[in-house]
Amino acid sequence: MEETGGPAGLASPRWQTVTHRDLMLSLLIGILVVPNLFGLAAEWLLTAFGESAAGRAARGSAFLIAGFAQEITLIGLAILLVRRRLAPLAEGRNDGGSSDELADWIGLGDPPAFSHLVNGASLGLMLLVVESIGSGLVYAVLVALFGPERAQEMLAGSQAQMLNWMAATPEPWQQYALVLLLAAFGPLAEEIWFRGVLYPSWRARFGVGRAMLAQSAVFGLLHLNLIAYPALFLVGIVLTLIYERRRSLWPAVFAHATLNAVVLAVLILQRGWPQSPGW
User: Fold this and answer.
1) Domains of the chain: which residue ranges?
2) How much is the pTM?
3) What is the mean pLDDT of the chain?
């Protein structure tokens, strides 16, 4: 009997009906087109208002809208793909399936439980170790190539992206919104897309090992941070293993959220909240 909904949805051969064109077009729209449109708006606001308080606040708002729009787009496209390609086939219907069936396909069929939170938080701390290993390997290579002083500068530069995000949100409400985006909404959207849709689609075609490696490679690449890429690749591998073992996406979501929250908290404790871009 063919596996379809619920936890078995991960292993269903029906995932092959989600084409490479579906996946790449969705990534193009969700990762590049939507956020860059809002990014252009933020640059226009910077030009129009300059470095005044109103200009910085407007630019921060545009940045936050871009971030949330990207994550909402990824979730929406994931739901659209499952609705169009998978849910009707599972039951031989053409209505796109119920919301419960759609959630089953992407590993969110069971409501989030306290056990998911506890397991995810502990696994998130493990992810910190994995990320540290990846960063340590990068540092060792950079030291061998450029010397320790330059290696430290390059490794510190890999944090510039998050620091600039923080600097772009000077208002207190914007800072709370950024924490929500980075530590909650972003991890949920990324897990739904990368582990909930992209991974099972490739898993059905290439098998567990190759799909895990390929999906993690794309996950790391799309963060656009070359120095942090090895660490992000390893984090992607572990998050995929969590989904494979648990057959629920919730532990991976909470692990991802814990990792982001701890990294953000460490940056704030070490440096405070930066007040200007490029800080």
Assistant:
1) 6-271
2) 0.88
3) 85
| pLDDT at residue 8 is higher than 60 | no
The DSSP H or E segment spanning 129 is helix 114-146
Rounded to whole angstroms, the Cα distance separating 149 from 249 reads: 41
d(CA 8, CA 90): 12
Angle at alpha carbon of residue 207, lines to 137 and 116, rounded to 5°: 70
Q: Which residues of 36-72 are buried (b: 16+ CB within 10 A; e: fewer)?
A: eebeebbeebbeeeeeeeeebbbbbbbbbebbbebbe
Residue 159: alpha-carbon gap to chain centroid:
16
pLDDT band at residue 87 under the 50/70/90 scheme? low
What is residue 57's predicted lDDT score, i.e. its pLDDT? 77
Measured CA to CA, the distance from residue 94 to residue 49 in angstroms comes to 51
